[in-house]
Amino acid sequence: MIAYLGRRVVQSVLILLGVSLITFALLYLLPADPVRQIAGRSATPETVENIRRQLGLDQPFVVQYWHYLISLLSGDLGRSYIQRSEVTELIVSRLPASLLLMVGAIACEVVIGLTMGLIAAVKRGTATDQSLMVASFVGVSAPQFVVGLLLLYVFAVRLGWFPIGGYGTWRHLVLPSLTMGILGAGWYARMMRSSMIDVLRQDYVRTARAKGLARSAIIFRHALPNAILPVIAMIGIDIGIFMGGIVVVESVFGWPGIGQLAWQAIQRIDIPIIMGVTLVSAFAIVLGNLLADTVAPFIDPRIKLR
Amino acid sequence: MKTKKTREREHDMRKYLISTVAASALALVLGMTSVRAEDAVDPNAKQGGAITITYKDDVATLDPAIGYDWQNWSMIKSLFDGLMDYEPGTTNLRPDLAESYEIAPDGKTFTFKLRHGVKFHNGREMTADDVKYSLDRVTNPKTQSPGAGFFGSIKGYDDVAAGKAESLAGITVVDPYTIKFELTRPDATFLHVMAINFSHVVPKEEVEKYGADFGKHPVGTGAFKLAEWTLGQRVVFERNPDYWHKGLPHLDKITFEIGQEPIVALLRLQKGEIDVPGDGIPPAKFQEVMADPEQKARVVEGGQLHTGYITMNTTMAPFDNVKVRQAVNMAINKDRIVQLINNRAVPANQPLPPSMPGYDKAFKGYPYDLAKAKALLAEAGHPDGFDTQLFAMNTDPNPRIAQAIQQDLAAVGIKASIQSLAQANVIAAGGDKAGAPMIWSGGMAWIADFPDPSNFYGPILGCAGAVPGGWNWSWYCNKELDAKAAEADSIVDPAKAGERAKMWSEIYGKIMEDAPWAPVFNEQRFTMKSTRMGGADNLYVDPVHIPINYDNVYVTDVQ
Q1: Which of A283, A292, A193 lies closest to A233, judged by CA?
Q2: pLDDT, tens digit, for every residue of B482-517?
Q3: How many CB atoms lie within 10 A of CB A206?
Q4: Closest CA to B474 of B454, B485, B459
Q5: Which of A161, B131, B362, B503 sits most deeply, having the most CB atoms within 10 A of its CB?
Q6: Quick one: three-class SS letters along B393-461?
Q7: Is the ipTM of this complex over 0.85?
Q8: Which of A53, A251, A267 faces B261 most closely, judged by CB atoms?
């Protein structure tokens, strides 16, 4: 177990290094010049060159990347070119909102998705199953912007049950979480359905049924714990995705998460922020996967970590 | 009252004209300027209350030496002051932290007398040393100010910019309330430069205390002070009770909510939750809003110092031929493009926008005339047109406008393929001599930094901007016009402002003969406000305090 964890940690560090190198290189190769964005339209050529020098952007790629890595090791993600604040400060200030939305969204996804998947699996082949699967397909393919605005219009503007965007109370959290829940539940529903169908075909389920156990006991006590494993792996991946920010939903609801920060930074080539958010989200994906893999043997004793 | 003021000023100017002695000029300028700032307070204004304004993007920094955004430009103006400012809602210069100023006859020495008793938000009195410190700071390369170049005419600028000196040799603190600027050349734009955010006065001790984070902890002399800043969520200003300008500001508190989509901001405005959507009316909702009388009544329309134009790279064939460029000017159906953006603009025929001094009302420009355009193309040796590329930014409505231009050009045989790219990539292509034959400037178009005709020349039409990475995307460089521009800018005497504006009109007229641009339209500004907002309409489309003049607006529902 410890050797396994050690190996996974080393792997994770290498993955993060790779991500940082690739992102840094891509940003370096961008045909647009970040200094022109910082300097604005009235800057003289001297001003532009001065800013380039001050930011060290006149250095060769290898030197720039090396400097970045050295600061990174001491936990310094640098200062935003445009906002002029510490990137760490900018990300940390948006972390609570992102985490909260992540928890809310995953909870909605899991509750809606698992319920749908479970019903579909049990009622396999019926009209209920088919309509649930169509619904999940629609959910997965619906544009976030449309669903978000629709919910906002109906529940906030028309009915006035929830505030029109913003952040602060649990009431602010409901609509953005629900939007993400509706959109993401389809994945969980489909995964839950196929996993559950697999499990329901197993011999031990037949044995349980032969023993005369109640249907609900078979499904919830015997089948569900075994069917849920792939779902946990999926939550791990979702954590990573959500940490990278949910640009559209955050914009629609004015949710101050990491997605907004990343989107604004990309538009203005604010390299330190783009690097910072990429690394944080890569870190979250790696960590999420690691957690999901580490938790797996506790849920399914057949799995051994080697 | 206003006419009386105007008459007084005209009178003063006439006297300036006949006076040859600098001392008498000083006396008059003193008389002219000291009371006017206080006069500007609206007698109907109510005191107190709080408003909420939304923005989509983060507020970057509130450091006046650095901030250069749509959102923070006007916020900084409310937190800080400069020696000069403009009468609210207009482009008329007036002294601000200065009480008066004197310009030497050679136009190279400006002396400002400062107001007494102006206090920073930390309680300390502002003096001439602070003004000098602030300008030394903004020009210091370490500050990385995008506006450093505005101060290029101050003696000693080159040494500071090169890192050879810490202080501008041309600025002398005569006494705590007198500061003298010596310039290397007469500079008619200097008073505007003293009104631009980059020259706003900051207290040394606070800048040193916060270092690079001063922009998050701004301390100025302005009408408001920063009360709260929650990153990514909101910025709150509260009234500065010690503001030197008696009776201002009217509001007790302004909350800026960040991260709100314009479309959601509009919904909230309709519900009465906010007072001004800072990013304006979303284009998709514009017609809906204007069709509803109740909403339309809360829309304020005004001009802005903006021109949208097509650049033609004068160093690339076939645009190196003036006839081809003139043909393009005649081929564009500007009225149709204006319709395409719901009439949120007026067609343009010259580089300057209508509200700018020097705009030539009599100038007719190139007519929309396909037959003439075709004839010009034939004369230039392209009777069947040619293939070219049109670069444009990829955000709405720019691709639609680019398509309209493409169709117009096709009508005279010019086949332009559209390169729809992110803003930064279009800017990069324009700054590369062999990068882009044609660019539609929308989304990146020129909005003046200050209301002076010279501001539309240097970087975008002058030789100085025709350099790699520059903004003169036509690569148009006319040495003769450069000399004429320098001559116009050396006319510092305010009494000769009319003469100077006329020179600029001629310069832009000459540019239109060479036709490096096809000017397309001047965007209008549309601000929406809640029913409880009060104050003159021009405060909501203030040409300088964009989007609105926070210091002078008020709410009607207090007491």
Answers
A1: A292
A2: 999 999 999 998 888 899 999 999 999 999 999 999
A3: 12
A4: B459
A5: B131
A6: ECCCCHHHHHHHHHHHHHHCCCEEEEEEECHHHHHHHHCCCCCCCEEECCCCCEECCCCCHHHHCHHHH
A7: no
A8: A251
